[in-house]
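Section 3.1: Structural characterization of target chains.
Under the original work plan, the team committed to producing a structural model for every single-chain target entering the pipeline before any wet-lab resources were allocated. The record below documents one such target. The sequence was received from the expression subgroup and is listed exactly as submitted; it comprises 472 residues.
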Amino acid sequence: EADNCTASPVVAFVSDVSDGNTCPELITRTYSVTDDCGNQILVTQTITVDDDTPPDLTCPSDITQECGDKDPVIKIPVATDNCDEDVKVTWTRSDGLSSAALDDINSTFEVGETTITFIANDDCGNKSTCTILVTVIPCDASYCTYTQGFYGNEGGLTCDGMTAQDLMENAFDMWTDDFVEFGDADNDKVFTLTLDDILNGNIFKMLPGEGPSAALKGDATYSDSNTWLYVPISNKGTIKNNLLAQTMTLWFSLANDPALGNLEIDDRYIITAESETCGSEIPVIGTEWYTEIPQSIFEYFGEEEFTVNELLELANQALGDVISKDDISFADITEALDAINNAFDECRILMSFEEAEPLDIPRTGSDLEEDLSFVTQLPLYGTPVMDIDYKVYPNPFKHKVFFDIKANENTSLKLVIITSTGQLVEVLYDGEVLDGTEYKFVFDSKSYTDAMFLFRIITDHSDSTGQLIKAR
C-alpha cells in the first residue's frame, strides 16, 4: 500500500479465514497496513486452494495363463498423489466382478480374455485409470488323466518320461498345500492324503484301490493305522473303498491339468482317441474308444451338463456322507469317475460326446470282463515269494503268457496286467487261493498292440512286479 507521508508503511498479517469447503477451498487472508503516524487500514486477499492433478497409478503387467498353469494372482496397485496421502484404488472386471460388490479380484478367470480396470480417485475427485489383460488359453480338446493302475505303479512313465511319483508330487506343488482332504470336514468324515504319503511311497500301497463304494466312517489318515477302518484300508495298506480310490485318482489328474475341471460333460458317452505324438493335438484315427457316464449322474444334475469339477465335488459329498445312497448310487459315482479317468488316459484327445452308445468302436480297455474259466490245477516249480511260488513263461512271448502259481498258505491273490505307463489292461484273478493248491492263469495279448506289459502279483504278505516282453 502507498501512503502520502510514509514511504514504506508496515504490513502485518492479521488472520486467515477459510470458507470450510474443499476442492476448491477459499481462504480470506487479512493484513494490517500502518503508517508512521499510527494510521491503519485492513486489506484482504482471497486465496484459492485447489487440486486438479490426478493420482499416479501404474498397473501390473498383463498376464497370460497357459493350459495347466496355476491361477493368476493379481495384486491391486498402490496410487500416490500430490495432496492426498491415502488414495483409494477400486477395480472392475469385464466379466462383471468388481470391488464395489466385494468380489475377489482373483476369482476364477474363464477361458479367453478378461480386462481389469483399476481406478484411483483422490479427495478432489481427480481420477486416474489403467487396465490389464488376463488371457486364459484353453487346453483345446486335449486333457490328461491317468488311471489308478498308473498312479499305483512305481514304474509307470508318461510319454514325456515323468513317473507316477513325479506327477503326484507336482499335483501337490500345484495345490500349494502339503495335504488334501477327501470327504467332508464339517461332517468329520475325511481321508487326509499328505505329501509325505507320496514321498515315502505309501501311495503305491494304497493304489490301485478296490472294494465297495461307501461313505467314510470318520477322520482317517494313512499315517495312523488305527483310523484305517474308517476307509477301510486293508492290513496290507490297500484302499478297500473304490469311491475314494477313484476320487483320489481324478484329483491327481485335475491338479496337473486344471482345465479338465471346467470340461462340461454333455452326453453319456465320451469318445476319445490317442494323440499322434506325445503332447500332440492331432488324433490318430482308428484308436478311438469310449467311456460311459451313468444316466443317474445326469438325473442328479437335473438332466443338465455338468463339469468334471462338479463330479469331483459330488464324489466328496458322497465320501463325506453329505448325500446318501438314497440320493444317488455311490457305485454310479465311482463309475463316472472311472469313465473320466479312462477317457483321457495318457492325454487322449476328445473327439465327441454322444447320446447313443457307439457300436462301431470299443469301450476303454480297462473295462474288460473278468474271465477265470482258464484257471486249472497243474504241477508247479518256481521262485518262492513268501506265501506263493510262481513262474511266468514264455517271456518274451508271441501271443500268450502263462502264470503258474502255487500257494504255500491260504492267502488272497490279485494278479493284474498293466501297460508300461500304468494303464490297467486286465485283472486275471482277484480272490482267495488255498494252501498247497496249484493254479494256472493265461494272458492273451492278441487284442493289444503294446510291445511290453507289466504284471503285478499281490498277496497278503508280498507284492511282486515284473516285465512281459512281446516278441515281434
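Confidence is low (pLDDT under 50) at residues 365-384.
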